[in-house]
Amino acid sequence: MALILDNLSKRFGGVVASENVNITVPKGKITGLIGPNGAGKTTIVNMITGMLAVSGGTIRVDDTDITRAPADQICRAGLARTFQNIRILPENSVLDNILIGFHRHERCSTLSALLGLPASRRETAAMRARAEALLERFGMRHLAEYPAGGLSYGHQRRVEMMRALASEPDYILLDEPIAGMNDVESDALAVLFRDLADSGIGILLIEHNLRFVTRLCEHIYVLDGGRLIAEGAPEAVLSDPAVLTAYVGGEHA
Amino acid sequence: MMNLLLGYQPLLDLFLLHLGLAYAQWLVLRAGVFSLGTVGLAAVGAYTGGILVVTYGLPAPLALIASALSGGLVALALSVPLARLRGIYQAIATVAFIQIVLSLNIYATNVTGGAQGITGIPKTVGTPLLLLAGAATIYLMYAITHSRLGRAFDAIRQNEAVAASLGVSIVRHQTLAFVLSGALAGVYGALEAFHSYALVPSQFGFPYLIAILSYVVFGGRTSLWGPIVGTAVLILLPEVVRPLADARMLVFGILLILTINFLPKGIADTLIERARGRRLGARRPAEADTAKGS
Fold first, then answer.
1. Helices (DSSP H) in A199-240: which residue ranges?
2. Nearest CA in chain A to B277
3. Does residue B83 belong to the interface with chain A, where contact is any CB pair within 8 Å?
4. Could you tell me the pLDDT band of residue B250, with boundaries at 50, 70 and 90?
């Protein structure tokens, strides 16, 4: 059981943005995807999340083929994501931002939602309780009523993560989750990611920060020019000459 | 005292009729559909009701249900091309739809009575029924707001990519919002027909569209109070300041420009936001206003 990218390719006309990329994200582990700017990380993310059409290869979540599925079906297949540039719902309160994350698990009929029948009210109350529990876990209970648009950067990132977790995914794709955070904030998140992986969620971590990735991941993929140039345990990968060349420049190797 | 209140009864009726259409407009905007077609759908409902009662002699309650269905069905058909459009293009397409409905009302003389419209509609709707309809509409909007549908609408309006990434089907929810709005507009179109003896084709034209849109923009687009406040103020204003009544459209225009510039979220939404800000400010956690630092 894993999130599997099999020979994934993307071409924009003659430009190859990614070519025959094979990545496996097992459950319960943190898998890293790194690469210098322009390596094609974002292309991979966009293909997995249904924002970009795939040119070749397949993407599977466990037994479900999501290669050509629209974004909402990908979420329902059990894959959640956060965004590289924060995307919260600025007008809504922090609590409401998280409530929408439970959408995948809402079961009451459209009619009872329309008429405000007890089933709909019970469901809303139950989801609120779960959202509050999530806020408690992330230490943001006191901010529940605040408009999410006015929060600090670090808090907005955490709102995004809680929202993704609310959908109770089997896999979660974190697109540069600690960009712009200080060490204290990122250390706190590292602990959290570890907990998530230990609870059985498969994490694909796309990150610039090498130190953060090497500390957290058991397995790393390195992307450059749209191709995988190395993979394996962090220490082995980071001493790979091809990786050093890609990151630091040709002379180093 | 009683006479004074009775004097205002037509105004109350007008308020309630327009409030229903304002909510129909509010509902689509809330789901991120930039449709201006509400009055077109109201025209569909009004003519359906009028024709069924006058030409076919159907009882008014049955005709009302048919009006709701016709508004909803026309909206459903319209939602297919609209789902491929966004923002201003949806606005243009729906204004075109209103023009089509208007032309049909004028040129399909055999069915719609042409330029003469439909006359001799029995008046079956009075203030009590309108009050009932208003209460039911507000309850329905309240229920939607506090259900999974309202949450999905809010997410889609603010960021479609986020909504989709959380499993919200954008097409399904926007279609639902548009169909509900169409059915609501259909009902209120028919209520208007059953309230006023006659229908003329020009009734559901551009000025009406601007009025309905003004109520929502002026009052507020996201809170439940928005349409109530907007409709009440804009309907009362020309009556309170009598000389303004003749220049109703001019006043609407000026108020809209002022609102958009100084209260872009509308009166009710801005006041609610300020009240919330004050309430939260009183127990402000240390860092809540170090906002946006990175």
1. 210-216, 234-238
2. A146
3. no
4. confident
Amino acid present at A166: A
Q: What's the burial of B140, exposed, middle or buried (CB within 10 Å: 0-12/13-18/19+)?
A: middle
User: Environment class of residue B13 by beta-carbon count within 10 Å: exposed (0-12), middle (13-18) or buried (19+)?
Assistant: buried
* Chain B residues 150-169 with CB within 8 Å of chain A: 151-152, 154-155, 158-159, 161-169
- Name, of A55-59, A177-181, A183-187, A247-251, the range with top average pLDDT: A55-59
Q: What is the dihedral of CA B257, B259, B263, B265, to 10 degrees?
A: -100
Look at the domain B9-293 and name its fold: ABC transporter involved in vitamin B12 uptake, BtuC (1.10.3470)
CB-side exposure of B35: number of CA atoms within 13 Å? 37
A143 burial via Cβ count (<10 Å: 0-12, 13-18, 19+): buried
* Closest Cα in chain A, distance from residue B137 (Å): 11
| Closest to B87 in 3D by CA, of B154, B38, B34, B161 | B34
* Calpha distance B170→B91 (Å, rounded): 18
What is the phi/psi pair of residue B3, to 5°? -65, -40
Q: Quick: pLDDT tens for B141-187.
A: 999 999 999 999 999 999 999 999 999 999 999 999 999 999 999 99
Is 60 exceeded by the pLDDT of residue A240?
A: yes
Closest chain B C-alpha to A5 CA, distance in angstroms: 19
CA distances from A124 to B141, B166, B256 (A): 16, 17, 36
Looking at every residue in chain B, the average pLDDT score rounds to: 89
Cβ within 8 Å of A, B 22-81: none
| Nearest residue, CB atoms, A72 vs list B169, B280, B287 | B169
In tens, the pLDDT along B107-139 reads: 988 888 888 889 888 898 999 999 999 999 999
User: CA-CA distance, A236 to A219, in Å (whole number)?
Assistant: 10
Q: Is it the case that residue B41 has pLDDT exceeding 80? A: yes
Amino acid at B289: D
Phi/psi for B56 (5° steps) reads -105, 0
Going by pLDDT thresholds of 50, 70 and 90, the confidence category of residue A85 is confident
Beta pairing partners, A80: A172
Q: Are A167 and B170 an interchain contact pair (Cβ–Cβ within 8 Å)?
A: no
Where exactly are the structural domains of chain B?
Answer: 9-293
Residues of B in contact with A96 (CB under 8 A): 151, 154
